[in-house]
Write a structure and sequence with these properties.
It is a single chain. Helix content is 78%, strand content 0%. The protein contains 22 helices and no strands. α3 runs antiparallel to α4.
């Protein structure tokens, strides 16, 4: 009995009354901030560090009830809550329901909200089940998660760590003030060098394609084609990883039979990963069916096209989630808007009617952001809990973060449900929704199909060359899809500095570089958050 109590006390629960109230309050704040900034500026700020800072400040208030927030684990739950609500409300819910509004189909807003909400909850659940698998390892970069963890640890421990973090944060704020993407600079210090080199190269090529080659890559659908090829090959590689591992000689009997969801080292078993991926596709298929039925698509297309729509919508959502997750894990950036646009373009080429296309792109857009954000949050927790050194603590803490995220997503859903009419009445719409609707109105084109197929080939080849660990095709396509001035130079210069420092100082330089990287990312996030608030206030 005492041993069980000791184990349970290893990690705090989200259901402590004071903690639950504070987390719900932060979730409401995060959801409102996300909606406001998405509709006014077209972006979602990273609020995780803000949540951690608020928790730290609350813990220093001389009131006994607040002393619990001195715990890094409670601070972690609070950052999980606010970031989940921010991305959930803005990306997973508001963007999808804005599409039928712009299309002049207000009767589809509630059906779209139901479908998007189900997709959001499933999205985060799948990441929770896939975290620390061969597909999405806990040891992966997940840069924003590292930044939040380092900020919490530095505030707790102080000393050289806090000095390095402070220097990095100062550099991040100064660089961001001058228009440099300091998050990209920080990521270059901790991410996969090969993957980030391709990411930076893609960013540079997108920035200079017009002045150097007089070619607008976006108009020719080159980035989209690359992502289709790279994404499809990434799916093939993911499948091969699982089946190769399952058939590998010399496995233990437990690994071969799939007993247990975690191996001795905490890594999810291949059998569990296979089940999760299979469950994910079936669940997306069910959600697509629910969305299609309540959206009235049965009366708008033939039975054969209806079945094809369901299969394509489920596969598109499934691929969208994996691609966004892979990009987020390696680079800290996730091209959710662009990949949803690819889904829409393919849907247009397949001849789906406009209403079906609106529901399709909304469904696709709802997947990915919650998946990526849950990955960042669980990475933060993984570091704070000792990088898996205590498996029991890790699993219990991870579960508490998942529950916290689900509560925050529920708060985000209620917030959007109560506020969306007021936003739409004032014509406050996510800007990307206008792009989606314009694409639907433009219709199909044989030339677009040809361009997508043509550029999918080098995207697939690049992904094959890099393999599943480097993800060259997906990351290069991610860079091509993002137009961010000078971000490519920032990434590549950061990689060069990292290589030089490691050559001179050796492996012992990795930890200080990681802390500096966290500072750069945190400083950039803080500047972006407060700058966005100021811009919104001026509007």
């Amino acid at each position: 009995m005492n041993e069980n109590k000791k184990n349970k006390d290893k990690h705090p629960t989200i259901f402590e009354p004071v903690a639950l109230i504070m987390n719900i309050f932060l979730a409401i704040v995060g959801a409102v901030i996300g909606m406001q900034l998405m509709t006014s500026l077209g972006l979602t700020p990273n609020t995780a560090i803000i949540g951690a800072v608020i928790a730290m400040l609350i813990g220093r208030i001389p009131i006994p009830a607040f002393s619990m927030f001195k715990s890094i684990h409670r601070q972690n739950l609070m950052q999980t809550s606010i970031s989940s609500a921010t991305f959930g409300a803005a990306n997973s819910l508001l963007i999808p329901i804005g599409i039928p509004f712009v299309m002049g189909k207000p009767e589809l807003i509630v059906p779209m909200l139901i479908g998007a909400a189900l997709a959001m909850f499933l999205d985060a659940t799948l990441l929770y089940k896939l975290f620390n698998s061969k597909v999405f390892p806990a040891a992966g970069a997940w840069p924003p998660g590292v930044a939040t963890a380092e900020a919490i640890v530095a505030a707790q421990k102080g000393g050289k760590r806090s000095v390095l973090l402070g220097l990095g944060a100062t550099g991040g704020i100064v660089g961001a003030y001058f228009g440099l993407s300091m998050s990209a600079f920080g990521v270059a210090f901790i991410g996969n060098i090969w993957a980030l080199t391709m990411f930076g190269s893609g960013l540079l090529l997108r920035q200079y394609s017009i002045p150097l080659f007089a070619v607008d890559m976006n108009l020719l659908y080159i980035p989209h084609g690359f992502m289709i090829g790279g994404g499809l090959m990434a799916l093939v590689q993911t499948t091969m990883i699982i089946y190769k591992a399952k058939n590998k000689k010399g496995q233990s009997k437990e690994q071969q039979t799939g007993e247990g969801s975690e191996a001795a080292d905490g890594m999810k078993s291949d059998q569990e990963t296979t089940r999760t991926l299979g469950f994910g596709f079936v669940a997306y298929l069910v959600i697509a069916l629910i969305l299609a039925v309540i959206g009235g698509l049965l009366t708008q297309m033939s039975f054969g096209m209806f079945i094809w729509f369901l299969l394509f919508a489920a596969l598109a959502a499934y691929l969208h989630e994996l691609i966004v997750g892979i990009a987020a894990m390696h680079s800290g950036w996730f091209p959710a808007f662009a990949v949803a646009l690819i889904t829409l373009i393919l849907g247009v080429l397949m001849g789906f009617p406009p209403v079906a296309l609106g529901l399709l792109v909304g469904f696709s857009a709802a997947t990915g952001p919650a998946f990526a954000d849950m990955g960042y949050d669980l990475k933060t927790g993984y570091i704070l809990r000792g990088n898996g050194s205590d498996p029991e603590l890790e699993l219990r803490g991870r579960k508490q973060q998942y529950i916290t995220g689900m509560i925050a997503f529920g708060v985000a859903l209620l917030t959007v449900l109560f506020l969306y009419k007021g936003f739409f009445a004032r014509n406050l719409i996510p800007p990307v929704d206008l792009v989606y609707v314009k694409t639907i109105e433009a219709g199909a084109s044989v030339e677009v199909a040809k361009q997508l197929f043509l550029w999918a080939i080098p995207g697939a080849i690049l992904q094959i060359i890099g393999g599943s660990k480097r993800q060259l095709g997906v990351l290069f396509a991610t860079g091509l899809l993002i137009l961010n001035p000078n971000a490519g130079w920032v990434v590549l210069s950061g990689i060069l500095i990292r290589i030089i420092v490691l050559r001179v100082k050796g492996k012992e330089a990795e930890a200080p570089l990681g802390i500096l990287a966290a500072g750069f990312i945190a400083g950039d996030a803080l500047y972006g958050f407060f700058n966005s608030i100021i811009k919104f206030a001026k509007k």
